[in-house]
Sequence to fold (374 residues):
Amino acid sequence: MDLEARLAELSRISGAATPVVSVYLNTRWADEHQRERARVFLKNELARARAAYRGVLDSDLDWIEAQGRALVEQARFPEAHGVALFACGVAGLREILPVRVPFEDAFVVADTPFLGPLAAVHELVPTAVIVFVDAESGRLVPVSDEGPGPEVALESDVPGHHRRGGWAQLAQSRYQRHIQDHRGRHFEAVSATLTHLVEGQGVKRIVLAGEPRNVAEFTKHVPERIAGRITGSVAAARHEPAHLLVERASDLLAGANLLEEAEAVDRVLVEAAKGGRAVAGLEGVLAAAGLGAIHVLYLLRGFREPGRACGECGAMQPGETDACRVCRRPTKPVDLGAALVERVLATGGAVEAVELHAELAQAGGVAARLRYSL
Ligand SMILES: [Zn+2]
Fold:
């Protein structure tokens, strides 16, 4: 699944005869209690939507209900941490997208698909690779936005340790050196494979996994030019399945992404203050979005701002005023956060939901990197 392509297609859906139902579920259920909460959340939201739309959305809501049940029972996508569902029967839309990061539960019925959380995922989880090493084997587990990819096993024919006593002591120390030599080559081979993958596919982060001594030894063989991408290491044993390694690495990767995101926001705010190819604050961002000039939109997670959007020229404005300030035609109420996300995606830009950022909050919660200076 190409998430970016799906996002672009979803962002073009609007103006169907009936609204679109968008549902986000956190499916990383640790216990029965959390699972029950998801079940209740869906049940209540479905009942509310059925009452509000009186039969208009029945087939869409039936589909959501059936999919939701399968998810909660973990009959579908048991490995996913979050699932997004979109339904709009008259537009031929029935989409279910599992991802590797948990969503906040959300249930939205609107003219267009609610895409903010999905767009945020895309940036939250850049491509990474988890590298398991021990003395004679290696495993590479690539991790993309959609989850772990197929694991690559790297094996070499290093003979195992043999405990020998007495006179063989000398031979053993030799043998040890021999093993060391093989280990060196094994690690070199793993390192060369890793370097190839990382540079060839633009992998941003590496997490090492294994016993500490193996990881430490392996690190010496990683060339300097990719060593900077090592985010950290986690303990792991050879027999453990890839999904456990991914689970352990996920906090490290999320932390590194948050730091990188905060630095990107810092740079945008500095650039905006200098009047370069960036803007900060709602008014500036709305104007840039209207021109299709936004390359990357940064908005604080949970950003909400009531405003209006013009059905005629598409302009967005804060406040309650009915007339469009550009073309004077009537407007309709929107949440400006959601409307901005849709506009930016529809014009080929990217969206990053920012977890916490004091200066961004001070600037009004939104900023953007632009394709050109305004
Ligand atoms: Zn207008």
